[in-house]
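In response to reviewer comment 3 from the previous cycle, which asked for concrete evidence that the modeling workflow produces usable outputs, we include below a single protein chain processed end to end. The sequence was submitted unchanged, and the resulting structure tokens are shown without manual editing.
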Amino acid sequence: MGLGLQLSQKLTQSLVLSPQLQQSLALLQAPSLELKALVEAELQQNPVLEEVPETEMEAREKSPETAGNDEGDSPEPTDFAEPPEDVKFDAATEKPSGEPVDDFQAEFEKLVQMDQEWREQFSSANAPLQATAEDEERRQFMFDSITAEISLSQHLIEEARDTDLSPEQQAIAELLIGNIDDYGYLTAPLEELAAANNLPLAQLVEVLKVIQSFEPVGVGARDLRECLLLQLERAGRQESLEYRIISDFMDALGRRKIPEIARGTGQTVDDVQAALIRIARLEPRPGRSYLNVTEQYVAPEVFVQKNGDDYTVTTNDEQIPHLRISNVYKDMMSQGGDNAEVKNYIREKIRAGKFLIKSLHQRQTTIANIGREIVKRQREFMDQGVAHLKPMTMSQVAEVVGVHETTVSRAVSGKYIETPQGVFELKYFFTGGLETSTGENMSNTSVKDLIAEIFKGENPGYPLSDQTVVKMLTDKGINIARRTVAKYRDELGILPSNLRKVY
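The workflow returned the following structure tokens.
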């Protein structure tokens, strides 16, 4: 059988999104802070776009013609300074008298050259401008003044360098520190490290003991048991009951078999429970304080404010630059004469700018309509809180708003709403539900909140089982399976009944 190449034709159907549609979807899906960066990038790329000055926007908001109504309607298109009139692309457009074409052509060529130079400046990696010694000193002082968080490994290496370890032991210390994870545990077995690096195991054990004397207390431990024992040893509590429990009854401690621990230690159940409380105060993750926790800042897209007996829904327009087409380029279009190149260049830029402005209007309108529908359907939540959240799907909102379900999904992705009950992600309000015995629908979030309240009010000596909670919910008219209760309990971070029991 011979091998060969063969050409064949195949007819298929595929959905291809135009660049304009892709841009519109990207603007719809982007949160406000990311959207601001996208719009500013378009301002840099499209010379016909300009941002409306804040003074002009304030004057427009104060004028009665542009003031918003009291019902929280979405802003009028003029808020984004969309051109009040379409730009005419007819070749026979009249030129204003007294404006020679030669002057316009020179100005246009100059603008094109400036635009090209601007792009080259930001796209190429040119050498920085020469600065004076004073400027360099000021710049270095600024960088030296910036405080940077130190990692756990950097902290441990600095501590190792301050010890009396020999150069050979310093190298072993850096090897061990490199295998300590972010929580402070040594993840690689000492035997493997010794074999891989051709080092005596005794030397690694000796250096590890030095590292385990560093701060934070418990660092360098190989498991949770060793970590807790190191903390108790540092505090001089080797003779305490909690030290004995961790040392000899770690497995029973993990299963909270308190009576078994009491029999093994010869102590009373009350004494063992008091020791467990002290053990709970120890740090199971010594490196936690050195973790780089990135704080997330959110800017609500929708604001809900109570106005009398009703709610006002507004969108956040402050984070979005207000754009318009520059009148300079509209005048240049009318002065371009018969130059097709000039007209085509400006025409495409103006069309792109107008499409961007239109997409921003459409985005804000869609989000505002979705926000109003959420408030309409979740009125009891706005009044009374999470327990009164109603089940709601994206398809229901999409049908009322007049868009596709995927559009609603993009519009609520990564966006937040500020309500009288707090700030929530828009997706929070889209949840399934259960039907009660009275025929009413109750959201899964409300059921989970109710389960949390039930567990919160239980007797610690007689913790409620999942089946008992099912019966309690059934008495309230909520039919739910035991496995669903177990699932919600796990999501709430509540342990099983045998691990919650207090003797």
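Residues 66-101, 125-129 have pLDDT under 50 and may be disordered. We consider this sufficient to address the reviewer's concern, and the full set will be provided in the supplementary archive.
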